[in-house]
Design the sequence.
């Protein structure tokens, strides 16, 4: 088990190096393949008056004048040992692991990521709890009452949930519950949990529900399909033959077996979400990683993009490792190796 | 679960029988989009404690559905059940689901065909036995565990105190079936239904398991229903045989009668297709021609007539009139239009010699 | 200042239109038609009040380029920075034409010029203090100009001071590299209240230049370079409590601000909050619901919200000002056959401006059909139309207009028309729609254009602002938009029609116009101390430009602006491009 984790972690580091390399490549080599010069790339970071002098200054300031390989090497070096950054009259030291400074705002990347992560974490975890609860219970009831009015209604709602964009559901829920009935605070009211837990909760209810609606719909369908399959298993018949109450049969025997495949999907979903729930964050004005990612990509802010990408990749890798470990715990037939 | 209750108009109206288990005119029908599937269509039999009834028939003859019906394990949502099932003086068809559930595992239990798929892969064998025991007995986990180890030992699993914490996939096929049996017997059931208990096992292991069931039956004095398509198993274990065809009883007899004086052409066919180890076989096997009937469109008259080589001997009765199960000799019933003498003649002259 | 207007890229209200109309609709607007009236904010500040207190809440679908007064170019940022900083001069807090007037702010008076407009002297007010209690001196103003114009680190703002001030020899490297006490020699601070600027050329609109946030004082000891945006020292009525990029800015009263030193500010709210990176459609919902006071970007409501604000209940809270923006098409004089003036004139006639206007959102959200380069909200605007068009009864250009275009094509030697390319910014769907409308109208006289699209971020730096690229790819027509960095004819025209504005990349003179008469007209005007004569001259230059037929004005941009009921002193200022003036805004 221990050796397995070590092996996986080494794999993760290799993966992250690859991800960073690819991100670097997309940023530098693709524009160059498209025929752009370094000056042209640098020009987009200058502002509105890109004089030759300003472009030269910017190239030096951002290190774009060096070969891409050297830039990549410097990036890794900063990660390992940190680096100093000249912010004008003052010099900033960025300790390892230093993920560099934004090309746009000169803010340190790691600090920004850590500043944004709690919002995304709050959103993703809260929504995950809601969608797991609602999605799985709906799926179970639908499966047990297959063909009933409940089943049909919930599966139609689930279909709607899967098909409606968060943009739509988010804005409609804001219009209804916030601006018309004034039950929940409006967009942009996110507060850090450490500042004001009550407001944090209030502000996140609608985003949680909106985001969870999409996923709950998906999970309800998955759970329903899984349950229908499991309920036909021989061991469910055995459980009944033992005289177990139906509740025990469903929850202990059927649900547990149906949930294992969902666990894998959940790991992927949560990992991706932890890299930022772009649409939800944008709709509700939550300052999370997703918005940071989009803004950084749009403004060509390489260090920030790298930061978010690596963070997302890390969270996916870590959560998948956890899922795999859990899988071995849940299903004794699975052996890690 | 609030499935539609079984149609109970005809159930629970009769008098309590003297037999330990008595099934009267049991019908289990499944309405489907393609039509009504008559899996069991008017079946009656009795069974006493300490006795073993073998139910034989091809796949789809209704033998497994009968056993599930007795335990109340058929899909209640889409099945119409009528008739009566009396177990130790209690009628089960009209009983509430909760009542039947309480009987399951305690008064009646079941051993399934494939022990691997029939045990939950995520729980240890011990856990599953403990669960079965504790649902009917208000005891602590420790006591239940001791009982489970005890049961594993009694079904012949070596080092039961160690194996109790193993998962099913770590057991060999035979050991798994022993564990399954331990689970089924953990509450001393009065009725044990074994549905093809040896089909999925090696031939060498089969005999061990059959021995085990026989030993345990004697020890517990249970009534056993042995469902199988393997007449060899029946010959080995059963006192009586019920031959089923298309959801109905074709023949009911003591084992000796059934093997040596069978009175139904279908039974002859079954015997003919059975490999015999105890004697030199004269010719190759004699399989029954044709295939089992659709349970939606059961052939008119005698359901066996399309496959029966002697159906023409009855004029058109075979296709128009359904033969009833009639007691022809004491304790020996069969449902066939052929005159009794003719049957004895065919058996003695044509069939017996070929076996 | 075309970049000052961050266009909401995120699917502007696509969804909102369909989904929210049903549930949002003004059921909570109160007494219908009781507001101050449609377009009232264009003429005068609406809901005038001196009531102090409360929190004024702004929302922004984007973020600042930087809130550092020395490192910003956005119009709203220039407007808003005046709450936490005081430049030498500023624009009068008023609505409409009156807002174009420059008034002294940190300076006691307008600049005193000598040396034919090459030397400008300002006296600072006494007793102006920073939020830390220290006193503002003229050295801090000099330092602010130096850091914002001469350092490598602060690149985002305009560089007019660097362009017009006399440079050191060797060239001044900015205060971060050049640590000498003297700094830039052409800015003198003989005492703490006096600052003198020496220009390399006569420049009579220097009072406009020092109205930019770059003259807001920055104490050298407190400057942290690119990190200063998170630790801004305030000289205005509010101090910046917190600015977190991508999240928010909060301001509270600067206890050391003294009303007696500040005749133009009212400093009404106790607190000011700005939430950035908010959903554009949700900002509109919140404005209508009353939970937000102002969209700080000042570019109007999203297209999905437009029908909602035009209902009878909401309309009295709406203004539809000209935004100081011209949307136009430049015809590059080096791309054949547009090197021939007749071909260009043919395009002038054959471009259906009404169709272009419709494509951009119609008269309310798109703007008025334009016939001049200078928009009406800029000082120096003169109304004229060299290439009059008429619409046919059932839409499209009438036969006479089309005939004129064909006649010009004949004169150009291309009687059957010609082919070229038209460029637009790919992430601005309305601009692309405009290009399509133009494509269709030109096709009617045989001018076949194919549309090429480039991302807005690189439009000028990598594509149409690079003459070499334009020539090689034969892009004869380029759609762009332009607003003045300061609201006079010179501020508007110099960057787009003066020959000096042709640059190897990142230029805005897309036509590569280098007309001696135009150049001279602008150069003479800016050296002319007589304001009235200058303004008249701008109109003349505009006519000269139109005479070359290289620029095809399409629309004077307009927007539907919403001013919630509880906002006080809401008036449209032309000096920041037709948005509300934030200087004295308050809440009821």
Sequence:
């Amino acid at each position: 088990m221990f050796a397995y984790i070590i092996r996986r972690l080494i794999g993760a580091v290799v993966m992250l190096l690859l991800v960073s390399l690819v991100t670097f490549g997309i940023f530098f080599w693709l524009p160059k393949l498209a025929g752009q010069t370094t000056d042209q790339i640098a020009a987009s970071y200058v502002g509105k008056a890109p004089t030759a002098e300003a472009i030269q200054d910017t190239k030096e300031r951002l290190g774009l004048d060096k070969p891409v390989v050297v830039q990549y090497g410097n990036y890794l070096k900063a990660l390992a040992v940190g680096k100093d950054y000249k912010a004008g009259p003052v010099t900033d030291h960025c300790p390892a692991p230093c993920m560099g400074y934004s090309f746009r705002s000169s803010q340190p990347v790691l600090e920004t990521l850590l500043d944004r992560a709690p919002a995304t974490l709050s959103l993703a975890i809260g929504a995950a709890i809601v969608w797991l609860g609602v999605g799985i219970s709906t799926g179970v009831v639908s499966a047990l009452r297959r063909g009933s009015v409940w089943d049909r209604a919930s599966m139609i709602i689930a279909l709607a949930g899967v098909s409606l964009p968060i943009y739509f559901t988010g804005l409609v829920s804001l219009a209804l519950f916030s601006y018309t009935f004034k039950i929940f605070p409006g967009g942009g009211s996110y507060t850090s949990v450490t500042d004001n837990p009550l407001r944090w909760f209030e502000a996140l209810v609608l985003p949680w529900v909106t985001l969870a609606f999409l996923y709950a719909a998906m999970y309800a369908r998955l759970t329903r399909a899984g349950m229908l399959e499991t309920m036909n298993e021989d061991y469910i018949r055995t459980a009944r033959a033992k005289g177990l109450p139906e509740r025990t049969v469903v929850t202990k025997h059927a649900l547990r077996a149906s949930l294992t495949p969902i666990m894998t999907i959940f790991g992927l979903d949560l990992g991706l979400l932890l890299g930022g729930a772009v649409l939800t964050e944008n709709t509700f004005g939550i300052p999370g990683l997703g918005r940071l990612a989009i803004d950084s990509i749009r403004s060509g802010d390489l260090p920030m993009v790298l930061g978010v990408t690596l963070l997302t990749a890390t969270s996916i890798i870590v959560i998948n490792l956890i899922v795999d470990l859990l899988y071995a715990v849940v299903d004794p037939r699975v052996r890690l190796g | 679960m609030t499935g539609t209750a079984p149609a109970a108009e005809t159930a629970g109206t009769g008098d309590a029988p003297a037999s330990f288990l008595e099934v009267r005119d049991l019908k289990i029908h499944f309405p489907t989009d393609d039509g009504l599937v008559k899996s069991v269509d008017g079946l009656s039999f009795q069974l006493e404690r300490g006795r073993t009834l073998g139910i034989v028939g091809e796949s789809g003859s209704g033998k497994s559905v009968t056993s599930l019906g007795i335990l109340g394990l058929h899909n209640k949502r889409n099945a119409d059940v009528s008739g009566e099932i009396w177990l130790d003086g209690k009628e089960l068809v009209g009983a509430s689901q909760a009542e039947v559930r309480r009987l399951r595992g305690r008064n009646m239990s079941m051993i399934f065909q494939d022990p691997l798929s029939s045990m939950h892969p995520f729980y240890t064998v011990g856990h599953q036995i403990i669960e079965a025991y504790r649902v009917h007995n208000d005891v602590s986990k420790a006591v239940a565990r001791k009982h489970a180890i005890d049961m594993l030992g009694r079904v012949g699993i070596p080092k039961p105190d160690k194996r109790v914490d193993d998962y099913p996939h770590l057991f060999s096929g035979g050991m798994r079936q022993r564990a399954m049996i331990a689970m089924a017997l953990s509450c001393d059931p009065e009725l044990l239904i074994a549905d093809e208990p040896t089909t999925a096992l090696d031939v060498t292991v089969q005999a061990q398991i059959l021995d085990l069931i026989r030993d345990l039956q004697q020890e517990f004095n249970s009534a056993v229903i042995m469902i199988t398509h393997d007449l060899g198993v029946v010959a080995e274990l059963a006192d009586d045989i019920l031959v089923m065809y298309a959801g109905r009883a074709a023949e009911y007899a003591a084992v000796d009668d059934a093997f040596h004086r069978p009175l139904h052409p279908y039974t002859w066919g079954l015997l003919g297709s059975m490999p015999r180890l105890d004697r030199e076989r004269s010719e190759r096997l004699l399989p029954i021609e044709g295939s089992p009937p659709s349970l939606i469109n059961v052939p008119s008259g005698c359901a066996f007539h399309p496959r029966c080589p002697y159906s023409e001997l009855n004029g058109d009765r075979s296709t128009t009139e359904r033969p009833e199960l009639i007691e022809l000799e004491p304790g020996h019933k069969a449902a066939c239009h052929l005159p009794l003498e003719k049957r004895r003649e065919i058996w003695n002259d044509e069939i017996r010699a070929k076996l | 200042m075309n970049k000052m207007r961050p266009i909401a890229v995120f699917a502007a209200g696509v969804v909102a239109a369909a989904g929210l109309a049903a549930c949002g609709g003004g059921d909570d607007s109160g007494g219908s038609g009781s507001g101050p009236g449609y377009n009232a904010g264009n003429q005068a500040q609406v809901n005038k009040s001196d009531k102090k207190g409360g929190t004024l809440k702004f929302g922004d679908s984007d973020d600042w380029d930087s809130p550092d007064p020395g490192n910003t170019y956005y119009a709203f940022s220039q407007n808003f920075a005046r709450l936490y900083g005081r430049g030498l001069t500023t624009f009068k807090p008023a609505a409409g034409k009156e807002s174009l007037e420059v008034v002294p702010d940190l300076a006691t008076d307008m600049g005193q010029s000598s040396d034919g407009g090459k030397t400008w002297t300002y006296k600072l007010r006494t007793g102006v203090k920073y939020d830390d209690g220290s006193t503002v001196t003229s050295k801090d103003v000099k330092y602010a100009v130096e850091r914002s114009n001469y350092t490598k680190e602060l690149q985002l703002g305009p560089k007019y001071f660097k362009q017009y001030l006399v440079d050191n020899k060797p060239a001044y490297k900015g205060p971060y590299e050049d640590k000498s006490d003297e700094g830039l020699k052409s800015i003198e601070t003989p005492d703490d209240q006096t600052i003198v600027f020496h220009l390399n050329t006569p420049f009579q609109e220097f009072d406009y230049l020092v109205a930019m946030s770059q003259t807001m004082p920055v104490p050298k000891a407190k400057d942290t370079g690119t990190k200063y945006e998170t630790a801004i020292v305030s000289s205005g009525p509010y101090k910046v409590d917190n600015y977190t990029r991508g999240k928010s800015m909060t301001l509270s009263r600067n206890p050391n601000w003294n009303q007696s030193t500040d005749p133009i500010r009212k400093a009404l709210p106790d607190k000011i909050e700005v939430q950035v990176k908010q959903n554009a459609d949700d900002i509109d919902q919140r404005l209508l619901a009353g939970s937000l006071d102002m969209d700080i970007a000042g570019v109007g409501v999203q297209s999905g919200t437009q029908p909602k604000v035009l209902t009878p209940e909401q309309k009295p809270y709406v203004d539809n000002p000209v935004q100081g923006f011209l949307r136009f098409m430049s015809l590059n004089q080096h791309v054949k056959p547009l090197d021939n003036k007749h071909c260009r004139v043919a395009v002038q006639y054959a471009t259906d401006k009404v169709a272009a206007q419709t494509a951009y959102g119609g008269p309310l959200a798109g703007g008025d059909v334009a016939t001049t380069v200078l928009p009406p909200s800029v000082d120096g605007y003169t109304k004229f139309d060299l290439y009059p068009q008429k619409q046919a009864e059932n839409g499209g250009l009438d036969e006479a207009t089309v005939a004129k275009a064909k006649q010009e094509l004949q004169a150009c030697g291309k009687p059957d028309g010609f082919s070229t390319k038209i460029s637009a910014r790919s992430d601005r769907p309305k601009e692309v729609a405009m290009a399509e409308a133009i494509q269709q109208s030109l096709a009617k006289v045989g001018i076949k254009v194919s549309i090429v699209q480039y991302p807005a971020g690189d439009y000028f730096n990598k594509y149409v602002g690079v003459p070499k690229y334009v020539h090689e790819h034969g892009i004869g027509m380029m759609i762009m938009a332009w607003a003045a960095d300061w609201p006079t004819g010179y501020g508007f025209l110099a960057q787009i029609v003066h020959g000096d504005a042709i640059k190897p990349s990142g230029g805005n003179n897309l036509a590569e116009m280098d007309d001696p008469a135009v150049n001279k007209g602008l150069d003479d005007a800016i050296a002319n101390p007589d304001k009235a004569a200058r303004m008249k001259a701008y109109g003349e230059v505009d006519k000269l430009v139109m005479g070359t037929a290289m620029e095809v004005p399409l629309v004077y941009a307009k927007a539907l602006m919403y001013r919630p009921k509880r906002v006080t002193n809401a008036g449209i200022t032309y000096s920041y491009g037709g948005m509300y003036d934030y200087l004295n805004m308050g809440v009821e």
The longest helix of chain B spans residues 203-220. The interface with chain A takes residues 1, 68, 71, 73, 101-106, 109-110, 112, 114, 117-122, 124, 128, 131-132, 135-136, 167, 169, 180, 183-184 of chain B (CB under 8 Å).
